[in-house]
Design a protein that fits this description.
The chain contains 20 helices and 24 strands. With about 600 residues, it is α/β, with parallel strands linked by helices. It has 2 domains: about 5-355, P-loop containing nucleotide triphosphate hydrolases (Rossmann fold); about 365-585, Nucleotidyltransferase, domain 5 (2-Layer Sandwich), CATH 3.30.420. The chain starts with 14 loop residues before the first helix and ends in a 22-residue tail after the last helix. Bound molecules: zinc ion (ZN). Zinc ion (ZN) binds near residues 260, 282 and 287.
Amino acid sequence: MDFERPGHMAGRRGPRERDSRRGRGRDATDVAAHVAKVIDSHDPELLSDYMANENPLSWAKRNVYIQQYGSDRFVPFTIFGEYQFPFLYEIYRFFNQRARHIHGVVMKPVQMAVTTLALNVTYYFVLRMHQNSLYTLPVEGGQIGQFTHNRIDVQIENSPGLRSRFTSISNVGLKKAGSNAIYLRGMQSTAKLEEMPVGLVVRDELDRMNIEVADQAHDRLQGNLFDWKLDLSHPTSPGEGIAYLWDISSRGEWMWECPHCGAWQAPDWKENVDIENERFFCADCGETVDKADLLGTKADGAARYVHDDKDSPIRGWHFSQLLSPVRPLRQQIQQWNEAQGHPAKIKRFFNGVLGLPWAETGEKLTVETVHEMMQGNPTMRMDYRGGALGIDVGAGLHGWILDGKECVKVFHVGQWSDIDYYIKTYQPEIMVIDAEPEHHKALEYATSWTAKDLPSYVCRRTGGHADNKSVEHPVRTPGHERAGTITVNFTEQFDDFYAELRGSASQNIPAWTLPSDLPDEAVEHLCAPTRVQIETKQGTRGGWKKGINHFCDAAMYAMEGQEILERRRGLTEARPSSLTKKSQFLEHERPKRSRK
Ligand SMILES: [Zn+2]
């Protein structure tokens, strides 16, 4: 267990800083416990006192019902119920009835009830403050319906306090309550947002949005009596998107106090998690602690946000999924173990589980670096069998065969039927073809090979919301064969590819091995893409300029195929007899590949 915190995060929370915080304040959790007691007491006097400082939390507790974890029942909302989310308390309180011009930034891991918080703030703002809200998501305009139906409509219908006040919810992009409304918009299309006066703008999953459109959303606040901004997202790379905003914010970090030695510390994967024994421990004294210590929910426990720059006009919060009241540490350790050897998965662990940006992408690949990677066997071997074949379409057809981290063959042909020779000779275990620009042709070719027992996919890149990469496996039932489909986010695929290709020095993960005779053209194609930062007045976002990179694209499709092969092997090992319908191609195992 040895790794460095990536990039600029290093050193922000060293032991010295922790020591200086030793013994400071227990106030936030005390207040949290007090408030929970007041609300639960139903004591009218205590309650009216509390109402004077009403915020979306106390309001939601009376008006919003949420689906109970693991059941169909809807129960009154709380963050101090069976599952405790004390790290959301300060954020809820920030958006209170006295606030006028505020900006809150939550740099968060996935699945920590922050979207629920954003919706509660939105309901509160419309129904209690009688103002319009704009809730934005990183989807194409037409895809907003899914979120509206699954999250908002269901909640309104099951919450008496909401149902009686929202007069019209049939429109997916507009939820009206008297003369005020929630507007819901997707932030991918560059079409201008219509002129609508709003006082609250929520940008949910900011790092997946088209940044120019996301900027325009804030223009809608101009001249309003209220201007409340709430940005939430998992981070991606340092200095980009939510990480940029968090850097210029107050930088609130959730800290907890060790019950044994009193040291204050932020929950940290390296310093607080014992992977082998599945336990939390104190970074200072080494004693075993548990999640309730990290959350500060024990009677004599203490935990709260510590803000680095209290003068910043933006309030920022960061916390890790280690605090999740519903996800056990075991799951996170499993995810960490599965990520080993894969820089792209480690990045996802940092972003999605620790809520931290990950630095190791970076500068353009040079010809010299590629030459250093060309230590593999030459491609002339005809005895090779297996691996994943990726095909790029455009300027002919470019092929790349990858086995594990080794490129074993590249080729360039003119006709689809020319690929047959390479499939028959090298017998790959899986094929992934670029879905554009010849979608029909690609699908037809992939289907014909699926029918001949080579599971094949077409890969579609989107600029939009691809929450998790989606994979639809091929159907191999005789007479009903169909190719599979992989849908990926363009920027994420490029980030993943270069992370995997280059390996990770800090994680001791080797780079790919390229054949010693890799053609110059392929070397050029690998070096063509440039990672760029798109800058706007409100921050930066990462992206890629492709250049001419056909072999590189083919390698990316091979990488997607390799990932499916690895998952499939993992599945086969882990659950030999419980194959789901979705992975039905697993039932038609190809003969074991042989390799001399
Ligand atoms: Zn300790």
